[in-house]
Amino acid sequence: MIVLFNFAFWKMHPPNCVLMSVLLMIADGLIVHGPSGPLVAPLGSSVVLLCYVNELLVMEDLEVEWTRTDSETLVHLYQDGESRPESQQQEYRDRAHFFTDQIQHGNFSLRLDNLRAEDEGRYTCRVHSQQDSGETVVQIKYVERLLVSGSDEFMSVGEDVTLSCSVDSHITPEHIEEVSWRKTDGDILVLLFQNNKTLPDSSDEQYRDRAELFTAEIPKGNFSLRLKSVRIEDKGVYMCLVFAGGLSANATVVLERLGFSVSHIMVLILCISASGSALLLCCLFYCRSPYKGINIIICCTSFGT
Ligand SMILES: *[C@@H]1O[C@H](CO)[C@@H](O)[C@H](O)[C@H]1NC(C)=O
Ligand SMILES: *[C@@H]1O[C@H](CO)[C@@H](O)[C@H](O)[C@H]1NC(C)=O
Ligand SMILES: *[C@@H]1O[C@H](CO)[C@@H](O)[C@H](O)[C@H]1NC(C)=O
User: Last residue of some domain: 144, 172, 202?
Assistant: First the structure.
């Protein structure tokens, strides 16, 4: 845009009237375009963050910088005629693809591959040319996902047990339509949660008044189930099934009985027979292993002759 400014400088002495016309080039800034609205894409997919100009730019000294608007993290930098991966944040090194062949057309779009939940946010595309610079902001609103996870548990008859189920989604927990806990053998409904409410009356008789969710944990996406006064027949495979935003996902957890296995008993017999007349000290430890919940370690120590 060209603006003509007329500055009239009136000096206090009437004969010395100076009129100055100053022609100023006001840098209006480059108009950089982005997508028409926020983007929504599935987890693991590729998404193109649009950024382009509708005018011809001098390629020389052209610089394009893609950053996260929130953290100022550098996603991609094009400088001195090439991409500069060394200056880019590690997490984008292999995932951000710049279309170098498109630059001459004024297209500075960036493709982000293998989309992650953390990619949600705003991105700024800054274009600096010799005379001008401008920017646009692109928002990744949601990375669509519904991931349900759980872990196996051991039970002791008569005690309470917690079967875990956590939901990670672009849909906030209060917008989850349904979560149901089922025992897979026989497809028995243990507990139903629908439209923000637990419906205890819909539970199968054998779980009536024994199953509940942790109300305070639900807003965190934690739909773990508390099963009270566990019975032998509760042993088995359970499924936590979630419906949200047209998607569904589930996790299965195994509820196993705590007990001695044949191999443990064999070790114990071996220990006793090997120790002969010696004083034998056998101790049982219950300890949690990362794999199977509870393992029993049998430790034998012999003293004397
Ligand atoms: C810019 O290039 C990308 C990748 O090839 C393409 O998807 C997009 O449509 C192009 N945009 C314009 C405005 O040419
Ligand atoms: C749950 O409650 C929230 C607000 O408390 C509401 O916005 C949402 O629509 C409700 N979800 C369902 C599935 O009814
Ligand atoms: C869910 O809540 C239960 C009960 O408070 C807790 O034991 C469990 O660790 C929680 N799970 C997660 C993943 O936070």
Answer: 144
**Is residue 235, in this structure, part of any structural domain at all?**
yes
Give the Cα separation of 276 and 273 in Å (integer).
Answer: 6
Distance CA 99, CA 162 (A): 51
Q: How many domains does the chain have?
A: 3
Q: How confident is the model at residue 290 (pLDDT cuts 50, 70, 90)?
A: very low
Domain boundary among 144, 166, 188: 144
pLDDT band at 3 (very low <50, low <70, confident <90, very high): very low
The verdict on pTM exceeding 0.70 is no
Ligand nearest to the CA of 177: 2
Residues 114 and 184 in one domain: no
Model confidence at 271, in pLDDT bands (50, 70, 90)?
low
Quote the ligand 1 centre to 48 CA distance (angstroms): 8
Q: Is the CB of 149 under 6 A from ligand 3?
A: no
Helix, strand, or coil (residue 274): helix
Neighbouring residues of 237: CB distance < 8 A, sequence distance ≥ 6: 183, 184, 185, 252, 253, 254, 255
Of 224, 228, 253, the one to substitute when testing ligand 3's pocket (max ligand atoms within 8 A of C-beta) is 224
| Ligand 2 center to 177 CA (angstroms) | 9
The arithmetic mean of pLDDT across residues 4-20, rounded, is 36
137 and 35 in a single domain? The answer is yes
Identify whether residues 244 and 215 lie together within a single domain. yes
